[in-house]
Specification:
- The structure holds 2 protein chains of 2 kinds.
- By secondary structure, chain A is mainly alpha-helical.
- Chain A has 2 domains: about 140 residues, Cytochrome c-like domain (Cytochrome Bc1 Complex, Chain D, domain 2, Orthogonal Bundle), CATH 1.10.760.10; about 70 residues, Cytochrome c-like domain (Cytochrome Bc1 Complex, Chain D, domain 2).
- Chain A is about 45% helix and about 0% strand.
- Chain A contains 13 helices and no strands.
- In chain A, helix 2 crosses helix 8 and helix 10 packs across helix 13.
- The longest helix of chain A is centred in the first third of the chain and has 21 residues.
- Chain B folds into 2 domains: about 210 residues, Up-down Bundle (Cytochrome C Oxidase, Chain A), CATH 1.20.210; about 230 residues, Up-down Bundle (Cytochrome C Oxidase, Chain A).
- Helices cover about 70% and strands about 0% of the residues of chain B.
- Chain B is built from 17 helices and 2 strands.
- A two-stranded antiparallel sheet of chain B has the order 1-2.
- The longest helix of chain B is centred in the last third of the chain and has 34 residues.
- The radius of gyration of chain B is 22 Å and the shape is globular.
- The C terminus of chain B is likely disordered.
- Classes of the chains: A mainly alpha, B mainly alpha.
- Chains A and B meet through helix 1, helix 2, helix 3, helix 6 and helix 13 of A and helix 2, helix 4, helix 5, strand 1 and strand 2 of B.
- The complex binds protoporphyrin IX containing FE.
- Protoporphyrin IX containing FE (HEM) binds next to helix 6, helix 12 and helix 14 of chain B.
Chain lengths: ~280, ~475
Amino acid sequence: MLEKKPVLFMLLATAAILVGTIITMAMPFLWVNTDADRIETVTPYTPIQQEGRDIYIREGCNNCHTQTVRPLVAEVLRYGDYSKSGEFVYDRPFLWGSRRTGPDLARLGGKYPDAWHYKHMESPRSMVPQTNMPDYPWLNDTALDPESIRNKMETLGFPYTEEQIKELNGKTEMDAMVAYLQKLGSDIPWRKVAETTIVGDLTNPFPGDASAIAAGKDVYSSNCAACHGDNLEGMIGPALTDMGMEDADLYQVIHSGIPDGGMPGFSNLGSTKLWQLVNFINAEK
Amino acid sequence: MENPSYNTDIVRSFVTWSLVWGLVAVLVGVIVSFQMINPDLNFGPYLTFGRLRPIHTNAGIYGWGVGTIFATFLYMVQRLCKQPLWSDKLAKFQLWFFNATIIASAVTLLLGYTTSKEYHEMEWPIDIMVVILWVVFAVNIIMTIINRKEEQMYISLWYMMAALIGVAILYLVNAAAVPASLFKSYSAYAGTNDANVHWWFGHNAVAMALTAPPLAMFYYFLPKSTGVPIYSHRLSIIAFWSLIFMYLWTGAHHLLWTPVPDWVQTLAMAFSIMLIAPSWGSVINGYLSMNGQWHQMKENYLVKFLILGITFYGLQTLQGPMQSIRSFSAFIHYTDWVPAHIHMGTMGWVSMISYACIYYLVTRISGRDLYSVPLANLHFWLALVGQLLWTVPLWVAGVLQAGMWNAMNEDGSLTYTFMETMVEMYPFWWARGIAGVIFMIGVLIFIYNIYMTVRKKESAPSTATAEGRA
Ligand code: HEM
């Protein structure tokens, strides 16, 4: 019968389409971004951060980077605490992405010092030779436009101060990008919570072992060279030659990092690799 | 039988332009695949990977995909309704507005005006153009159907109408945004809600643009090519209703393990698995229609494209539900497995079907035999090999990278750094780049063949009764 009645047919087809739509697309609005998943410490973006976010969108960084950590063991180890709904209430649009050509950035904030980002954004390969991330040097060349950013904050309804708008003068798109990257995922104090304490006593399991030193060199190249230089000569981080640290102290620093100084913790490398590193660094004296 | 008052000029023009945009899509695809191998191929600020990739996907879906939908729907509706197009003027407007929209999209995306939402990157002024375009198209098709001379509406018309309605609803809801300036807007939804709305759109764009229309085309052009009717009308109707009902529940299978509410994810998972039934309803209907006709796989190049196309649709709709299972998604999500899934769909299913339709209707409209059947066969093999060399290595790559991401040492630490897993991808990306070039050569041969068919001067009027037989 329907085969002869196009209007009736289209009404029924619309109804068929709307059932699943209402239940799975419209109904979640009753729970999501309400008091049910609100997190007190999550704040809107400041003018410079929001502008950084808009530049991130403009450059299509989301085509290579995701921004959600799933509650899976290996993923939490690699990136940090898993993502919570309430952390995204100020994200218009969402930037979760669908492909990790590069690493997830949801917990990036505070991972590296600003200097690392400036250098990396300008030329990723100068720090990670085999990366395929494009260079973004031109972000240094464009000055921010405070009035258009004010307009954006008004559109979004985010709070801002005149001070914050004034501070935008003389800043570049690169400054905005770095400000945004440093905010990512740091509205909840997950780094504090995730700090692991070292259990057991710290004795070097392979003191002076040549194979451990060789292995440590490899671990160093892929994890540390970008900041401490290929030959430990220092760059973003200080030189690591002639430090005269005890093995156990050195282990402690690498394991837990120096969060306020811009030195990330490397507890997720595991104790074997950490000891290999200690032996490598202390052999370079 | 051909009614001379049917508007064939407009079909011809849409074919031409969908070929142009199809070539652009493949070309940009090849460029971005090499940018992933060598970042020196990025020429900032305009020609970087982040800006070009959306041009590739949008030229593919909206230029090639929708362009072909326009051409074939306008062709089919007149014949299935035994009624000339409702308005030739509107169709003419649609043609130029279509090209204006695609060009405006490409230019604005290059300039960095983007919403970042996959397959919906264009900013709000272009959204408005898309809406106008779709309304003009839908009105013309629907009015032609309402004025039809053939009382029964064939199954292809059902899929066409569903696609018209579906795309309209999806696009409008997902486009909701607050403009901050002419080329910058902020989504009306935030965070988790935005993600859920977006993938409701994203997955059903697959349903309403990359599934329903090619099915409409398949149901029409397969019988036309083979000369025998579809196996079961009833089966196609059952499959139709269950397909359009179930698809809309499944968007969150793109968001498994994310902060989207668990029950939404679970529903998506369940409905995705149920979707196997209606999807395979069409696949089986296609296969059974070939009963007693399998010899045509050898003799008729159109049948090759159509049957391989529906086969990849069948594989796609088994793989998709598998990816929708939480444990499997945990593994392959975010890896190259997923782009390989996409390209079996776009290169294997949508494009194969579209090629067959275009070969068929161009010979039909021009009243000529195809310029070269051997070249069409060559095109078939290049498209098939190009697609398989793209997808198979990238499935392997996805599993490899997923395995490395999850590998852990005995002391509970991760075995590999991110970069150690990423550099393993380079050989696979090379294979993909080469596959893209092979596929693109196929497209060039296809375009050449079509061009020579319509162009050649002393036209020998068509000899075969059912085109495609040679
Ligand atoms: C029963 C049918 C199908 C189901 C259940 C299904 C399921 C899925 C799932 C779960 C994903 C996400 C994978 C991930 O990110 O982990 C996906 C991605 C995708 N599928 Fe399918 N699929 C189906 C059929 C198709 C067809 C016929 C096409 C046609 C081309 C297609 C095109 C795509 C595209 C374009 C994406 C990529 C989305 C993105 O950018 O992440 N799918 N599919």
